[in-house]
Amino acid sequence: MAQEAATPAPDTGATATGGEIVVTGTLIRDPSTISATPIQVTGRAEIQLRQSNTAEDLLRDLPGVVPSIGNAVNNGNAGFSFADLRGLGPNRNLVLLDGQRIAPADLIGRVDLNNIPLALIQRVENLTGGASTTYGADAISGVINFITRSDFSGVEISASDQLTGQGDGNYFRVDGTIGGNFADGKGNVVVSLGYQSAQPIYQGDRNYSITALDSFSGAPAGSSFSNPAVFTLLGNTGGRVQVQPSTGTFATGLYQPFNFNPYNVFQLPFKRYNAYAAGHYEIADDIEVYMRGLYSKNVTQTIVAPSGVAGSNVVIPLSNPYLTGAERSVFCADAGYTTAECSAAATATSPSSPAYRTVTEELRYRSVDAGPRVDRYETQTFDYRGGFRGKITDHISFDVAGSYGESTNDHYEQGYYSVSRVRDALLATNTSTCLSGNTGCVPINLFGGTGSVTSAMNGYVTVPAFSVVRSSLAQGSALINGDVGFASPLAHTPIKFAVGADYRDYQASQAGDIEKTTPGELGLDSTLTPFSGGYNVTEGFGELVAALIEDKPFFQNLTLETGVRYSHYRVDAPSHPTSNTTTYKAGGDWTPVEGVKFRGVYQHAVRAPNIYELFQPASPGLTNLSSDPCSGSKPVGNATLTAVCLAQGAPASSIGKISDPASGQPNTTTAGNLALKPEKSDSFTLGMVLQPRQFIRGFSLTVDYFHIKVTQAITSLSPLDAISACFGSVTAASATSSSCTAIRRNPSTGALDGDPATTGGLYLPLTNQGTLLTDGIDLGANYKHDLGPGTLNLSFQGTWTRRALFKATPTALNRECVGFYSTNCGGAGAPEKGSLQPKYTWNQRTTYTIGNVDLSLLWRHISSMKQEPDDALNGDGPALPAFAKIKAFNYFDASVRFAASSHFTFLVTVQNLANKLPPIVGYDIGSTFFNSGNTYPSTYDTLGRRFGVSGQFSF
After folding, report:
1. CA angle, 252 as apex, 250 and 257 as ends, to 5°?
2. What is the CATH number of domain 3-201+267-304+530-609+678-716+766-954?
3. Where are the beta strands (DSSP E) in 154-269?
4. DSSP string, 75-133
5. Sign of the dihedral defined by the CA atoms of residues 877, 882, 887, 893, in that order
6. Cα–Cα distance measured from residue 399 to residue 67, given in angstroms and rounded to the nearest whole number
7. pLDDT of res. 57
8. Burial status of residue 238 (CB atoms within 10 A of its CB: 0-12, 13-18, 19 or more)
9. What share of the chain in percent tops pLDDT 90?
10. Under a CB-based contact definition with an 8 Å cutoff, are residues 739 and 731 in contact?
11. Angle (deg, nearest 10), helices 339-346 and 325-335
12. How many helices (DSSP H) and strands (DSSP E) are in the chain?
């Protein structure tokens, strides 16, 4: 159970690893040092009781942690797992290994939790609030520090297997660790190897997710990228028509949406290989050399609904061999051809014929016959670190180290339609050759139903694609710490200090083949814009911990903690100005009497813009928005609104016929900004620790208030913010306002979706105009008591999040997202938005130990949620009442651990003991990242009851 460190070692966050003392929250490495900042600790026993397979699995359910990208996120996941403290975004917290940074996984600089060697982790410590003074930029919301068993000696082999109650989703894991001391205890080496694999769980295999449901009507829904094909008529008649294969005609008006749910998965299939090694050796008295290295290879697949053509314009000869007479007549009428012209064109098979005619229409089509889109991500990461440490005097130590790490994410795409090849294959007048004469071109039949597109047709229009993201981090550090040899006048503990310097150099790039980098070329896929960039930072820092008063009446201890760090940033770009920042902290703790402690700390932190935020060129993408202010009849008869829609690029002929974004996903144009400056944060925590040993033995209680405010935050507008900035109050001047003209519509249909080569959609650049604020209270309690023949252990960790405010610009809505869900909430300026942040969350574990047997029950609570009021009022509209609120959820997990001998331990777990089904809210009331399968699979259990067994052998 995550619990607060309240007493000295081993529960203070101070742990020896290979001769080094790691104290989370300070660089003063002394086992008696306790950070004034609250630290939640998850020990090895809790990791084992949960049968956690990855660090993300472990962290996701902890209070104060908001689910981020992980194994439950399918659409948009690049094979990574991230952590998000306080809902401020995974780009605003640091993930450390033994107090040190490791190689980032992506352009944003985030650490992939899949690389953490969980088998060798002794404990996980979560520090709340800014920590830039101690660790440098990025620690706005806090730090997650994984501490290893680097002095491990012996052999340990463990294996686990998990399966759902429906017999799917098998998850297998095996780890082997060997270590030992040598040279009469002067050195130690440990090596750990691990392998994991998981099988997919399809949304089509669960009754509640087999059919996509509209969040606002409750009706079966889906995408207008459909099968049979849907055409938007761009000529005289306009409107949308759908192929009716049984009659060879077009149906007008309503179309049958495509149900994409069955193709998607709740659990990603993957294979993962991890290797970790660490060692240290005393080469002379009080001087030690040390090293550690890790390697990880992760192969993950995301599986989503079939590809096709996402609203691109195509040219169709009226003599296309698969076009029926009835369908031809509709196209002819739309193009304004006479009956005679249409009849003559039906047999004109050569473009040189005077009777040859074509039509240009917008195509929306799902390639069901080609199967689903499968994206394979192969990520390889290595990171190694080495250094020297030792003593300068009896009171002063030094540590000089360097490290380097790289991550490569190779992305292989299969099952995607090439839009250019579809256009080529439609431009045909017989069933065997295309008018282009291109080798291998097979005319395609998009005028039938399922089965009309043969394997030969799909073989030509389906193309593979490849892209790669690379990132690296080089580091150097020098640290001197110890004590000054004397204490303050009213204390006896010497004043402790740490001074030093750090250097970090980040580099990253992304590239792809021509299919991946050509806008709109791959049907229903995002376009990658190649770029590279980097920056480095040089820093100097100092920290001081001084016991001011000790062992005096009402002042058993009064300790002051301070620190400062100066940072100089240089971006690898011509003529880009450098920037300098200063971060600082001040705090302390007061123990008036034994068992009572008060603590508090104020920290001014910064976060420098990352490579993605600085260097990303203007790039097309998708976001979430169900309702377009220009759709349907809204602008009809409203000259002012019509003028705005036209100014955004809608053709005059589309007014009254513009459709809402397909699948609730409008196009976007996002862009980095080399002018970005570091964002600033001010945070403070105030709390108390109670350990009334004289009154209640074995009991401890912690209460801490946290408050984090980020100014000059690097954010972009939410979709509704971008819409409201233009359409919130439409006037005659709106048609020339930059907030309106920045939105670019489909030049053929006037919609916000379509071919990204021509439709910019919502413009969402990054700026320093954002403001973020969150505050709340953490509560932790632990109690241990002998009861009957055994021992009872009770632990509780809960968080009340009072506020989570996000304001993208000074004129945008100060959006409150705690307890609410919508397409605009969650992620606070991160590239992926939409994760839920409940007002109350808690974990409570009850464990009863009898001899060699542990019987344990974990209670996980998530408070109720509801649709964001602004979304219901000004955005997508009110959701279906049944989907507009989620009641409070409680999950129970049971574990039985049996130590058969001193060498073998056996564990059985049942997660989601009551087989509780997830809440159903439809598919389009949140972002595509997190609102999937009619629910939120990162927050709620979508897999049902799961059984797990594991065994551990050690000697």
Report:
1. 90
2. 2.40.170.20
3. 154-164, 171-182, 187-198, 201-202, 230-232, 240-244, 249-252, 265-267
4. TT--S-----BTTS-GGGEEEEETTEE---SSTT-PPPGGGS-GGGEEEEEEEES--HH
5. negative
6. 36
7. 86
8. middle
9. 82
10. no
11. 130
12. 13, 44
> Is beta strand 762-765 parallel, antiparallel or unpaired with respect to 667-671?
parallel
Pairwise CA distance, residues 631 & 529, whole Å: 30
The 10s digit of each residue's pLDDT in 219-267 is 999 888 889 999 999 998 888 899 999 999 999 877 788 999 999 999 9
- Given a cut of 80, is residue 33 above it in pLDDT? no
| Of the candidates 120, 126, 64, 52, the residue with the CA atom closest to the CA atom of residue 96 | 126
- The Cα–Cα gap between 662 and 718 comes to 18
> Across the chain, what does the average pLDDT equal?
92
For residue 360, what are the CA distances in angstroms to 162, 235, 331? 53, 8, 9
Tokens 């993957």 locate to 270
Measure the CA dihedral 250/256/261/263, to 10°.
-20
Q: List b or e across 494-513, with b for residues whose CB sees 16 or more CB atoms inside 10 angstroms.
A: bbbbbebebebbbbbbbbbe
Q: What is the pLDDT of residues 641-697, one digit of tens each?
A: 999 999 999 999 999 999 999 888 899 999 999 999 999 999 999 999 999 987 889
Question: Could you tell me the residue ranges of all domains in the chain?
Answer: 3-201+267-304+530-609+678-716+766-954, 204-266+308-369+418-465, 617-674+717-765
What is each CA distance from 590 to 6, 560, 700, 779, in whole angstroms? Answer: 13, 9, 17, 19
How many CB atoms are closer than 10 A to CB 894? 15
3-state secondary structure of 481: strand
Query: Residue 763 and residue 745: Cα distance in Å, rounded?
Result: 11
Taking only the tens place, the pLDDT of each residue in 933-944 is: 999 999 999 999
